[in-house]
């Protein structure tokens, strides 16, 4: 057998220049690419030489020798118990591994030698396995709860509730929101599972919320607002068992229409005297659904849905064609999945080059009849054009933690952008783009007026230097009344002496933010506050200077906390009122992975621990540090 040799690739020491030339990476000299001898000869100047020939027998001997050495080779790993435990439970809480994997042979081959090297001084083994991970997870979750308990002590907070429609319509997540260190913070408190229907479901939800609050010793009098993803309508999902992801693929058009109507209904659900209200961000999805109520638009929408069903049917062969042409396969929309209608139509419109060849499918069924013609393509193009600003806003509402001021700023930009598209369009008033645009603008105007019913909306704008001047008399009066009531709440849970010129925070865990705070503490000793320049009068007489739209409200009030500590305290609570469900919704997407078929034996308690640890990552390191496991470490 002829000996083999390792080839010497000189080109790896050069980079492409131009005109079939190569530039040396070492000295930048340029040579012709097809002069291989010259390329190799040049490398000799830099001490780079071709490898020597190596026959098969030598190679086998070397390999055998290497394997022999590997049997006696040991690997040294530098890792602390803390990092090991953090990574180990992270396999479950962050990567979604089932506990069974932690006990697999392959995992044991990796973990056991490390644990052997981490024996304590007495020789006692350090053990990590599936059951140990659950126990550690329990301890870490308990430590996180203690830290959240301290954060929420003597503090007014707002709650967010979201139903896990993609996971289980009977499961709800509860989180607290407040401002700390000049940032909006969200803390997952727990999850509840409801059973029952009608008024019993309402009562059960209220009881479960109170039960979760009791775990943290949070009184109902500390709660400013309770916001849900779609208001009291979430209870209706328990009645119907609807799943916005699982059933979307089989949702027929008549059911689709019913869901649109259901999405806009509300019921009164109260926790104590606090009524649960829908998050303000839902206004965007409601406007998108309002457009579909036009009979002409709805008929076009049904055609798009039927076309999507046709494409998704494997026997029609479009899945492979979409992949071949690098198009995104459209997914059937669902009213409760924000922005899904736009995504479906946009993906259809982008694939026009291959879908325009589909012939009209005549069928008596409303869910199978397809008419693919110029009118349908004009509708798709018009829809994605006029709805683009709204879709962008919907995505922002789902991705960003917003207070009412920033929420309203984005919403106004959306309204102005949509109106600009309509007014600058050359289309006639009979065109489909004009029809969609007029309906959307009318819906935006009507829905915007309804925002005033959201608790704290007017008050937040009243404290926002960008928007205070645009409020009318009734809005200002609602804001003033709300702020007066809120001030009474603050005095109950945060005694007046705690609202000093320098200590406006209400949590033991909120540390000094800078050396200037220390200086302010020193200089303010002995200063007597004139707190009774009646706070109510301050609220009534408040006149803020107009600031540009780029103003950071939290920074604006932080700079005024010494001169207006009471108003600063009010601003922190108002700007902490949630407008979106950014924190909770991604959590349930993760839990859906955890609850796959081979993991459905997990108890509700274990699932809640996973949720707490995963989504309260700000407390994870300190929670692990405080485990009894590490009391003997330096």
TrEMBL record:
Residues 52-61 have a biased composition (Basic and acidic residues). It is found in: Nucleus. Keywords: Metal-binding, Nucleus, Zinc, Zinc-finger. Residues 62-73 have a biased composition (Basic residues). Its main location: nucleus. GO terms for cellular component: nucleus. The keyword Zinc-finger applies. Transmembrane segments: none annotated. GO terms for molecular function: protein dimerization activity; zinc ion binding. Residues 550-615 form the HAT C-terminal dimerisation domain. Residues 52-73 are annotated as: Disordered. This is Zinc finger BED domain-containing protein 4. The lineage of its organism: Eukaryota, Metazoa, Ecdysozoa, Arthropoda, Hexapoda.
């Amino acid at each position: 057998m002829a000996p083999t040799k390792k080839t010497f690739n000189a080109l790896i020491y050069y980079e492409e220049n131009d005109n079939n030339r190569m530039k040396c990476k070492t000295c930048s000299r340029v040579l012709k690419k097809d002069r291989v001898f010259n390329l190799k000869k040049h490398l000799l100047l830099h001490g780079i030489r071709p490898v020597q020939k190596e026959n098969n027998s030598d190679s086998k001997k070397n390999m055998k020798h290497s394997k022999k050495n590997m049997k006696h080779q040991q690997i040294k790993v530098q890792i602390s118990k803390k990092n090991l435990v953090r990574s180990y439970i992270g396999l479950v809480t962050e990567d979604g591994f089932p506990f069974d994997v932690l006990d697999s042979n392959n995992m044991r081959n990796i973990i056991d030698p490390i644990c052997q090297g981490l024996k304590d001084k007495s020789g006692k083994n350090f053990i990590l396995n599936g059951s140990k991970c659950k126990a550690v997870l329990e301890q870490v979750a308990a430590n996180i709860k203690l830290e959240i308990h301290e954060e929420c002590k003597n503090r007014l907070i707002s709650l967010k509730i979201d139903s896990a429609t993609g996971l289980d319509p009977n499961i709800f997540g509860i989180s607290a929101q407040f401002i700390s260190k000049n940032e909006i913070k969200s803390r997952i408190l727990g999850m509840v599972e409801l059973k029952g229907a009608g008024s019993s479901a309402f009562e059960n939800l209220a009881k479960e919320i109170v039960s979760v609050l009791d775990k943290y010793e949070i009184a109902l009098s500390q709660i400013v607002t309770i916001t849900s993803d779609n208001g009291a309508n979430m209870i209706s999902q328990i009645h119907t068992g609807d799943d916005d992801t699982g059933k979307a693929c089989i949702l027929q058009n008549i059911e689709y229409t019913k869901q649109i109507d259901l999405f806009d209904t509300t019921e009164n659900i109260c926790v104590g005297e606090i009524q649960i209200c829908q998050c303000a961000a839902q206004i965007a999805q409601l406007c998108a659904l309002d457009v579909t109520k036009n009979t002409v638009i709805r008929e076009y929408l049904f055609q798009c849905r039927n076309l999507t069903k046709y494409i998704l049917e494997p026997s029609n062969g479009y899945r492979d064609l979409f992949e071949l042409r690098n198009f995104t396969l459209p997914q059937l929309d669902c009213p409760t999945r924000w922005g899904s209608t736009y995504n479906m139509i946009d993906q259809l419109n982008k694939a026009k080059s291959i879908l325009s060849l589909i012939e009209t499918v005549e069928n008596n069924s409303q869910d199978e009849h397809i008419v693919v013609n110029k009118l349908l393509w004009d509708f798709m193009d018009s829809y994605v054009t006029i709805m683009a600003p709204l879709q962008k806003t919907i995505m922002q509402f789902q991705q960003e933690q917003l207070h009412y001021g920033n929420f309203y700023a984005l919403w106004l930009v959306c309204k102005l952008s949509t109106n600009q598209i309509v007014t600058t369009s050359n289309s006639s008033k009979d065109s489909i783009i004009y029809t969609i645009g007029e309906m959307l603008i009318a819906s935006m105007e009507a829905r915007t007026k309804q925002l005033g019913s959201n608790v704290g909306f007017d008050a937040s704008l009243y404290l926002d230097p960008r928007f205070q001047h645009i409020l009318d008399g009734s809005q200002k009066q609602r804001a003033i009344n709300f702020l007066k009531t809120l001030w009474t709440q603050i005095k109950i849970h945060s005694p007046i002496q705690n609202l000093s010129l320098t200590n406006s925070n209400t949590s033991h865990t909120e540390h000094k933010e800078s050396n200037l705070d220390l200086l302010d503490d020193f200089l303010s000793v002995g200063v007597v506050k004139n707190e009774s320049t009646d706070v109510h009068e301050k609220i009534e007489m408040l006149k803020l200077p107009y600031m540009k739209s780029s103003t950071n409200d939290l920074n604006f009030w932080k700079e005024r906390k010494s001169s207006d500590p009471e108003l600063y305290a009010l601003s922190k609570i108002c700007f902490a009122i949630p407008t979106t469900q950014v924190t909770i919704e991604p959590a349930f997407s993760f839990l859906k992975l955890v609850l796959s078929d081979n993991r459905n034996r997990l108890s509700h308690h274990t699932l809640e621990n996973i949720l707490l640890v995963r989504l309260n990552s700000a407390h994870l390191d300190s929670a692990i540090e405080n485990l009894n496991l590490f009391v003997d470490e330096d």
